[in-house]
Amino acid sequence: MESWVFLVILSVLIHFLLNHILKSPVLPRKLPPGPLALPIIGNLRCLRKSSFEMKPILRDLHAKYGPIISLRIGPRPTIYIADRSVAHQALIQNGAVFADRPAALSGRKIVSSNQYNINSAGYGSTWRLLRRNLTWEILRAARVKSYSSARNWVLDILLGRLGGSGGASVLDRVMDHFQYAMFCLLVLMCFGHKLEETKMKEIEIVQRRLLLGLKGFETLNLWPSFTKILLKRRWNELLQLRKDQEGVLVPLVNSRREKLKAATEDEDFVVCYVDTLLGLELPEEGNRNLNMGEIVSLCSEFLNAGTDTTSTALQWIMANIVKHPEIQEKLYEEIKRVVAGNCISIVQEEHLHKISYLKAVILEGLRRHPPSHFGLTHAATEDVILEGFVVPKEGSVNFEVAEIGRDPKVWEDPMAFKPERFLVNDSEGGSKVTEFDLTGIKEIKMMPFGAGRRMCPGYSLAMLHLEFFVANLVWRFEWTAAQGDEIDLSEKQEIMTVFMKNPLKVRLSPRTHH
Ligand code: HEM
Questions:
Q1: What average pLDDT does range 97-103 have in this prediction?
Q2: pTM across the whole model
Q3: Ligand 1 pocket, 455 CB below 6 A?
Q4: Which of 488, 243, 470 is nearest to 357 (CA)?
Q5: C-alpha span between 396 and 406 (Å, rounded)
Q6: Overall domain count for the chain
Q7: 183 lines ligand 1 (CB under 6 A)
Q8: How far is the CA of 271 from the centre of ligand 1 (A)?
Q9: Gap from CA of 330 to ligand 1 centroid (Å)
Q10: Counting atoms of ligand 1 from 1, which one is nearest the CA of 401?
Q11: What is the distance between the alpha carbons of residues 274 and 13, in angstroms, rounded to a whole number?
């Protein structure tokens, strides 16, 4: 073994041992049940596995120990919750206690500017300020409405890419177009610029390289003060990725700052996320403004949070629409009924809420195929008792979002795609969509956007994007499987998001009603 590898292993072991001795409480605490773990290393078979890869192991453990279990992955306990009422107890009934995030590992600190972004900030004043800025300044209804021309612009781009030639077309990777369209939309909402394709691609590449790169840097996190010296070259690579990202995003922020100075009289001016960040002051830090690094981290979070999540949801939904032609037909007929008499090429946003079946299809898509199977990791602000067990402050807590939405005790035939489960009869003999509460405040039946104080702030925007794009994609094209291709619903996880393992291939035939 090379001497430096031996040194790393030795130092990591010493580090964990010291951690273990120093941090072990004097009294034994009753953690949620789980398999025996080696004192320092933890549960060996879980080391280096993502939560997604651990799903079969977790299923066995839940069958043996119940809905709340603990594992030792490295030095700290990791708790998994697979039951909707335990999730409700934690996230809603004990919402404030379970609203923290674990301390970020060193690599993540670099890309989040020391946890100055919403998803990784601890539960406190900075998180509150950043989250309120996003929800009020960008995601409130009036502001979302102001982005409707951005949505139309992006729909145009997407339709052009899908059926530019006018005739029927076969597309091998329709997902690439969904991802690109969603990315354009978020870039415009973020920086206020309609950029050309080459520039969009440049941003997409630096963002993806950093996200993918972070995963490869996990070993650096084990003992940063030590690995920074020993694995200097790898740390420099991470720093370089971050520099590359700043090299692409900082000029966009600066050019927006310039535009902002001249924009006050422009009637068509639409506020973008960067505008709000440039004006933000941090009262707890002497009213200073955000620095450029923090602005870059927040923009990066904005782009990442809404791109892969929404485009993978769109792909899963369209895959099910192709797999079940009767669902597609019913949706098309309902859109036709709602827009009847209007000779339109685009289903407008004001039509969407009248198409009950559309909402049911989207909800079913998010239930059956939640883009993230574990949401983001939570932490407790203090040691807390849940279901008779201690959830320690230093532990991390994961909610098994996909298991909860596929619970056979709540959902009949849970693996089937049945939008009808979200419909009820209305007084006129038709059907309407149930008042389904995605926030889970009364009870949790599914939680694709999480629940409680850390619930996804972008959930209404994501629902609008999905409704708008699904309606228009079905309105403009008939979607069928590319010849001889079965729709395969196998899953794979990339970074945090669950994609189709075999991307959707389709034949698109333009509809003739226009
Ligand atoms: C279908 C699309 C989306 C899905 C499925 C989704 C899902 C989620 C989930 C599961 C979480 C973690 C919740 C938790 O910690 O319990 C989350 C957090 C978050 N999402 Fe989304 N999301 C989507 C779209 C968006 C969009 C469009 C935005 C913003 C433009 C956004 C911004 C965020 C942010 C900032 C957080 C961190 C919240 C916090 O820690 O306080 N998401 N999302």
A1: 95
A2: 0.92
A3: yes
A4: 470
A5: 23
A6: 1
A7: no
A8: 21
A9: 30
A10: 10
A11: 44
pLDDT category of residue 22 using cuts at 50, 70 and 90: very low
Instruction: Provide the token pair at 2.
Output: 């090379």
For ligand 1, atom 6: residue with the closest CA: 449
Residue 245's nearest CA partner among 212, 289, 279, 290 is 212
Across residues 234-249, what is the average pLDDT? 92
Q: What is the ipTM of this complex?
A: 0.99
State the distance between the two ends of the chain, measured CA to CA, in whole angstroms. Answer: 70
Q: Which atom of ligand 1 is nearest to the CA of 301?
A: 35
Q: H or E stretch including 506?
A: strand 506-510
Q: Rounded CA gap, 168 and 172, in Å?
A: 13
Known binding site for heme: residues?
456
Ligand 1 pocket member 396 (CB < 6 A): no
Q: What residues does 507 pair with on adjacent strands?
A: 170, 480
Alpha carbons 370 and 498: distance in angstroms, whole number: 8
Of the residues 120, 189, 190, 456, which should be mutated to test ligand 1's pocket, given the most ligand atoms within 8 Å of the CB? 456
Q: How far apart are CA 210 and CA 193, in angstroms?
A: 22
**Ligand 1 closest atom vs CA 313:** 1
CA 119 to ligand 1 center in whole angstroms:
8
Of the ranges 69-83, 132-146, 211-225, which one carries the lowest mean pLDDT score?
Answer: 211-225
Better-scored residue on pLDDT, 49 or 42: 49
Specify the ligand 1 atom closest to the Cα of 131. 41
pLDDT at 129 over 60: yes
Question: Of 272, 278, 304, which is closest to residue 291 (Cα–Cα)?
Answer: 278
Q: Give the integer Cα–Cα distance in Å for 442 and 424.
A: 19
Give the CATH number for residue 97: 1.10.630.10
Domain assignment of residue 175, given as a range: 3-510
Q: How is residue 119 written in tokens?
A: 């998803």
* CA–CA gap between residue 91 and residue 81 (Å, rounded): 11
